[in-house]
Amino acid sequence: MNALKLHRKLDAIWSSEPGWRGWFSTVNHSDLGRMFLGTAFFYFAIGGILAMLIRAQLATPHSAFAGEEVYAQLFTMHGTIMMFLFAIPAIEGLAVYMIPKLLGTRDLAYPRLTAYGYWCYVFGGAMLLFSLAAGIAPNGGWFMYPPLTGPIHSPGINTDFWLIGITFVEISAICAAVELTVSILKFRAPGMSLDKMPIFAWYILVTSLMILTGFPPLILGSILLELERAFGLPFFQADLGGDSLLWQHLFWLFGHPEVYIIFLPAAGIISTVLPVMARTTLLGYGWVVAAAVALAFLSFGLWVHHMFTTGIPHMGVAFFSAASTLVAVPTAVQVFAWIGTMWKGRPELHLPMLHILGFFITFVIGGLTGVMVAIVPFDWQVHDTAFVTAHLHYVLFGGFVFPLLAGLYYWLPLFTGRQRFFKLGEIAFALVFIGFHGTFLAMHWVGLLGQRRRIYTYDADAGWTTINFLSSLSSFILAIGLALVLIDILMHMFATVRGKRNPWGAGTLEWAAMSPPPSYNFASLPVVRTRDPFRTDTDLAERIAKGEGYLAKPNGNLRETLTVDVASGKPDYVVRYSANTRLPITLSAVTGLFFLSLLLKIYWFTPVAVIAIAIVTWRWVWSSGSRNDSGLVSVAANTKLALAETVEASPGWWGSTFLLVANATFFGSLIFGYAFLWTIAPGWPPPQWLEPWAPELLAGTGSAIAASAFIRMAMRQNRNGQSPQSGCLLAFAATIMTAVSLCSLMLRIPDPTGHAYGATLLFISGYGLFHTLLSALMLAFLSARISAGFVSPQRKAAPAIVRLWTDYGAATATVCLVISHLPAWLT
Amino acid sequence: MFVGSAGIFILVTILLAMSFRAKRSNSSETTLERAWIIGLGICFTMTVLAILLAYGIIAGNRLTASHSEDAVKVSARADRSGWTFSYDARPGHATRDILHIPAGQNVTVSITTGDVIHSFWVPRLAGKLDAIPGHVNTLKLRANEPGTYAGRSAEYSGPGYLGNRFEVRSHGADTWQAFLQGELD
Asked: How many CB atoms lie within 10 A of CB A387?
């Protein structure tokens, strides 16, 4: 088969439906990556316009441009949009588009999940956009501190848009994180061991794991605050045993890792682009990977540095101050590794390199002011002034936007297969650079003079007029620069001439695909032996196109790729993806109805939406797998591999594992919140503890342990060739018993609206009940699959996945029951 | 701190600029790693941070050091329209948006709030400290000279935040006594 014939055949299998209809049914990572990036930049423009309105208001003293209420919505939405609707989705989009190409494979681990995440982002973002257009946008500042955002001081719907809309959008972050983690660990070209992975994949792996452990505290906080607002459960009300500081802990437990979740992918872009621009390889690959991992760990020990002024004892603060300064070490390791790389090679001043230099200048200043605010006495003065606002823009714009633009200009020839024609990009860069520094140097200055953040105007005699005017003027230069970038990219996409493959002479695999990349990425999967396979092996691209690699023979209409062993990169098993489908958009629309019913307080509809979600999910999972055993699949001349459904560690098992990691972090944050309220909040102990009741405790924990034992029995039966149906049904019965015990517990909880103790207990046991019912649903599904003939001694993937969830449900139910009964016995 | 930061910034800029110079050292990858990553990345950074941190902790301890018994005790209670101050030495009396303190004496302010979170900030006398529902935070103040010092709430508190301000009046010994005796509101 020649290259062209192979291309036609593969393209027919892998491509999305033509035209705009394809947008709604596509599950292709290149399409979805582009859609993610396009939507993210749309929100970047909206957030930018809000920033311009803020600067217009502050340009002169006593400006009548925007009133106090409008101004509050402007700054809240600017922060919210830039963080949640631009930065994170832009990273997801770039990673979704690039990762399979860098790893030399055909798609991500779960193509339908990519689409589901994208549509959750679109629908959740639309909710926030609607609130902005209708003038009822969130207005309590982007970190939403209660009690200001609580039911008493913010009774309107504004805050609900934030809590519900952002939680909806977070689903897409969690989906993308699970997907990218599993893709990087398992879905690579044969032979690509961990130490041969492109550096960008390492950064995305670390970032994804951080999203899985960093976002759950925020999701928990949002749910708790929404429950307080909607049903009067007083988690954050000091007079009823709650504590507003709990929100600050949960928020910054997310919020600080968030900064590194944004920075690390940007650092990954620099580590990828800079060596190519300097015509060499990255200095200290191992050191840089270690630094990224260290940064991830340290970033979870820093959150209290946002709370230095909340009256935490000084030695406690000193510990976090030390941790905050320590984080500068792995950052410095990376910065010096990059500068060392430039010394090692011969840097050339192409456009991506200009943006990298812009990054260096800006980020180093941002890092230095960051060390300043990590020093407690200094922070006590500048906290909540324009100095801090300026600092965070130096870090985020310097550490994210410049690298992102560098990456965009670097990969544009790959995205489009064209070359730049005009010198517009250089002019745009100059405007962005000058405008940015003008705007934010001025803000540092006025912050040191005492201008607080979030004030909507100031007096003429404060002495801030000139500086603010300078800042506003520069911000418009910045905006013009960014608009030019947009025009430049559009010109590039639609107007300029075709360019040659791999214009920068890079060594990574994405350049070995055609540009623009075809729907299937690689006609055959190359065998990787070095970190830069395309650098030395220049005819690699032709060999891939001719089908001289793995999986070169299209198999019917099946979308096939293969996985590898995590560490060594040896081929493991073959994965068959599902084709284009509208299930993802349907499921996210139904998920949207669930959130909408909460937002509009149509609570009778909420259970209907939950049942609809369960039905669509059931169909989703049902549609994969087969009823017959099939043999090994030939992937290359002498290599045959098993199918995914015949292994216990299937993609579904890997995904469930990482989803449960996120889930366990959520549960852990919940237990932390309970302990925090008990020990720190005023108004404890509560007027009444839960009455312990031994039969309930014993029945609940006993049946939870039994469920875990029975699902193991089912797996053993299946392995031995017996029907696993009896074990599965026994496990189902046991989970129902656990659910009954938890219901009994929930009915006996002391008044949940009267004290945070009852509220917390209700939420914890509700969480346990939810997971128990989820296990029951999955066991029912498994039982149906067994009856329909989808499970056999050879096809054993499904029971292993259900076992994970049953174990998790059993463990959480046990913890719920024990900690509910504990306090009364202890006191 | 500013001079140090400027120094580091200039160092990084010079290193960046020099990398464009036509030079080709033939030192090995390991030598380069040792110089750039271990030398500059780890050792240099650790040294600077250690010094800075020690300074910060010592200064912070000085600012929060426990008060001698003779400190004047006052309370501050914030709400969304302003601040109410009361005085241990003059029970039953409260002032609105003006805090009276004696000059040249240590003062402890117990800070709390009646509604949302606020922050007590008198830039010329001390750093910020938050007023949090259900918690009482204590701040140490000292004004060496009699005079008036502007104060602000420095945590966004919704509508009215801009105007949420107060002032601290520090009095000489005579007027302070007059205040305590009720001859001055």
From this structure: 26
**Residue A691's domain is classified under what CATH number?**
1.20.120.80
Contact map slice: B 151-180 vs A, CB within 8 A: 152, 154-159, 161-162
Do A629 and A672 belong together in one domain? no
Residue pair A552/A524 in contact by the 8 Å Cβ criterion: yes
Q: Does residue B58 belong to the interface with chain A, where contact is any CB pair within 8 Å?
A: no
> Closest approach of chain B CAs to the CA of A594, in angstroms?
30
b or e along A659-695 (b: 16 or more beta carbons within 10 Å of the residue's beta carbon)? bbbbbbbbbebbebbbebbbeebebeebeebbeebee
Mean pLDDT of chain A: 93
Tracing tokens 């002011």 back to the chain, one arrives at: A369
Sort out which chain A residues have CB atoms less than 8 A from B152's CB and list them: 450, 452
- The CA–CA distances, whole Å, from B96 to A19, B110, B166, B168 equal 68, 16, 8, 11
Q: How many helices (DSSP H) and strands (DSSP E) are in chain A?
A: 27, 4
Domain span at residue A790? 648-826
Question: Rounded to an integer, what distance in angstroms lies between the CA atom of residue B36 and that of residue A270?
Answer: 17
Distance between CA atoms of A173 and A124, rounded to whole angstroms?
12
Q: Which of A604, A630, A647 is the last residue of a domain?
A: A647
- Asked if the Cβ–Cβ distance from B134 to A368 is below 8 Å, we say no
Residues 671-730 of A with CB under 8 A from B: 681-683
- Cross-chain CB nearest to A310 (options B8, B57, B130): B130
Pair A635, A722 in one domain:
no
pLDDT at A315: 66
The number of domains in chain A is 2
Co-location of A681 and A551 in the same domain: no
* A709 in a structural domain: yes
Total residues found in chain B within this entry = 185
Crossing angle for the helix pair A88-102 and A244-277, to the nearest 10 degrees: 40
Q: Is residue A405 part of a domain?
A: no
Are the Cβ atoms of A681 and B44 closer than 8 angstroms?
no
Q: Which residue in chain A has the smallest CA separation from B57?
A: A318
Q: Is the pLDDT of residue A408 over 90?
A: yes
A581 with A724, same domain? no
Beta bridge partner(s), residue B111: B76, B137
- Domain co-membership, A630 together with A692: no
- Across the interface, do B19 and A147 touch by the CB < 8 Å criterion? no
Instruction: Choose one of A647, A669, A697: the last residue of a domain.
Output: A647
**What residues of chain B, 80 to 99, have a C-beta less than 8 Å from chain A?**
none
CATH number at residue A593: 1.20.210.10
> Do residues A638 and A771 both lie within one domain?
no
With an 8 Å Cβ cutoff, is A311 touching chain B? yes
Tell me the C-alpha distance between A409 and A270, whole Å. 12
Distance between CA atoms of residues A499 and A521, nearest Å: 19
Residue of B19, B132, B152 lying closest to A310 (CB–CB): B132
The ipTM of this complex is 0.90
Q: Which two tokens stand for residue A265?
A: 């992918």
Structure tokens, A305: 């540095």
Question: Does residue A353 form part of some domain?
Answer: no
d(CA A311, CA B111): 10
pLDDT for A760-785, tens place per residue? 999 999 999 999 999 999 999 999 99
Phi, psi of A290, deg, nearest 5: -60, -40
Question: A626: which residues sit within 8 A by CB, 6+ positions away?
Answer: A645, A790, A795
Residue A664 has what DSSP assignment? H
Do the domain assignments include residue A393?
no
Given the structure tokens 């992918």, which residue do they identify? A265
pLDDT digits (tens, 9 = 90+) for B110-120: 999 999 999 99
Residue B126: list chain A partners with CB under 8 A.
380
The answer to whether residues A222 and A119 belong to one domain is yes
Whether the predicted pLDDT of B67 surpasses 60: no
Q: Are residues A131 and A34 in the same domain?
A: yes
